[in-house]
Design goal:
2 copies of one chain form a homodimer. Chain A has 333 residues and is of the alpha/beta class. Chain A has helices at 17-30, 42-50, 73-79, 84-93, 106-116, 152-170, 191-201, 229-256, 261-277, 305-321, 323-331, and strands spanning 3-8, 34-40, 58-62, 99-102, 127-134, 137-142, 176-180, 207-212, 224-226, 287-290, 296-298.
Chain lengths: 333, 333
Amino acid sequence: MAIRVAVDAMGGDQAPTVIVEGAVRAAQSSKGRLQVQLCGPETVVQPVLESFGAVSGIEVVHAPEVIGMGDSPVAAVRTKPNSSIHVGLRRHKESRADAFLSAGNTGAIAAASLFVLGRLPGVFRPSITTFYPTTKGACTILDVGSNMDSRPEHLQQFAKMGSAYARIMMDIAHPRIALLSVGEEQAKGNELVRSTHELLLNDIDLNFIGNVEGRDILHQKADVIVCDGFIGNVILKFGESIMTAVPEMIQQEMDQLKAKPSEVALLKKALSRLARRFDPENYGGGGPLLGVEGEVFILHGSTTAGAVEECIKTAAQAAKANLTNAIQKALAP
Amino acid sequence: MAIRVAVDAMGGDQAPTVIVEGAVRAAQSSKGRLQVQLCGPETVVQPVLESFGAVSGIEVVHAPEVIGMGDSPVAAVRTKPNSSIHVGLRRHKESRADAFLSAGNTGAIAAASLFVLGRLPGVFRPSITTFYPTTKGACTILDVGSNMDSRPEHLQQFAKMGSAYARIMMDIAHPRIALLSVGEEQAKGNELVRSTHELLLNDIDLNFIGNVEGRDILHQKADVIVCDGFIGNVILKFGESIMTAVPEMIQQEMDQLKAKPSEVALLKKALSRLARRFDPENYGGGGPLLGVEGEVFILHGSTTAGAVEECIKTAAQAAKANLTNAIQKALAP
């Protein structure tokens, strides 16, 4: 039977076009193994879908309301119960879809997921997870923004959930888990990190390798890096700016060196290949919201059709592997 | 009269050679306007100094003890009262030097500064300040590591001190002050940031422009960015890794593109120029420890002779401009 993925057709800066295009690509390349449900206002989404011609394995599910990027998450969840996010999540809740994904308002996705799906038993706080390109591949970082003021027990759960994710979805038998801090020594860091270090050291289910520093992220000293959502989000956005600022800086230097046009062209090619390495398309298209009762994936607001396609496949893979079940087991006392 | 700068000759990975070389350069180029005091064990420092031939405007001040990079700051400050750091700070305290700088153990410099010089009246916590290269120059960030668990009043003082520093030392009449957060809106961020935002908004002495995000640092949306020391340190070290990881990644792409040796050579040249932009040598050589009763500058442990030379000049400039006095005025209620 095909795996059914509900997709928020209205989420992201270039919705619905880019989302529908990614969905069409995923449906086409799956050769019947996927069934995509595009959630959004029928009058908006249907014409876009039709512009791609006849595609099998894809349908529109009517959702009359849309939550904007600027909407307050909590208010939107209450006042727009028929948003594309709600409708998609309800499909998943009612087992009419096996997973849900959105490139929309992150706070609203997290809040609506809690409201519609609920959290897994024992979970303090769900966590937004992302992947970070490194010199050696990619590492998983969580939390990157759903929890602004965390406690040590929260970070310990993030570590358990991140470890289970890397095991199930990235095929790493014993993921190396590290805690983001300002020095390797256990005594380094703020109160939160020092208390969390203690908890992780004593957690026999984790392959905890200790603290890593800011400089270790890009060099992939760990498979999963755990931090609180405030710092994770700052780091995430700082990292995104590398691929806008550093090429600009290199270009400034090439100009100073009076590089020939052919040399500049080659550099631009290398940089655009590098930018693709920083593109979520290369590592699953989006990251999971771990800790809720279901398979929910969140994409970047500026997502591409390629990333949408990848994320649909990743969400289907998570549903097939029963990721939520694995997370729940990892959290069991 | 010459400005007298006491220098910890034993601080940093390549001490004393690199430190002495930087000091010699500063003394030579100052043409009598500077007098450098190299603090460290006479038998170690004197021969290195002599290896540079006869240099005027420089002398060795004997300090028999050395604090290592791995020493516990608090313990070292108590058990090594005659370290090169202590001796240099005491020269400053006794007005036999107008400023002090070190590339040694940051925690020990901060702790010894508090112990020997004391804090300025009303200062909650001194703050380590650094400069960050951007597409448009450099921005000032504080705190980057001296305070792991800060309160809103601490961050407000960092803002005031950073603003005074940018005004006095960087010649910016009305420095744009921003708070590092996860969104521009006042309601975004953790509890610390939300409360600090409120304080900064109501502080008429500051040109507070609101929150900035991680992605705004490299694009210089503000002149001074305020954050707590934990996140500042993570960001600082993450930023340092850009210049090791990104060139490696670009090289990987150039190899894939089968770039010619001449093209690779040009790129390497551009990257090494860019790396120089990330070199502290270009923005004062080191950053001040703001909030103590004196002019104290801290250099990176891997400092170069050029950065030491620059930092000596910067410290002399701070002494001449009476930076500490300006900071004190900025903090006055």
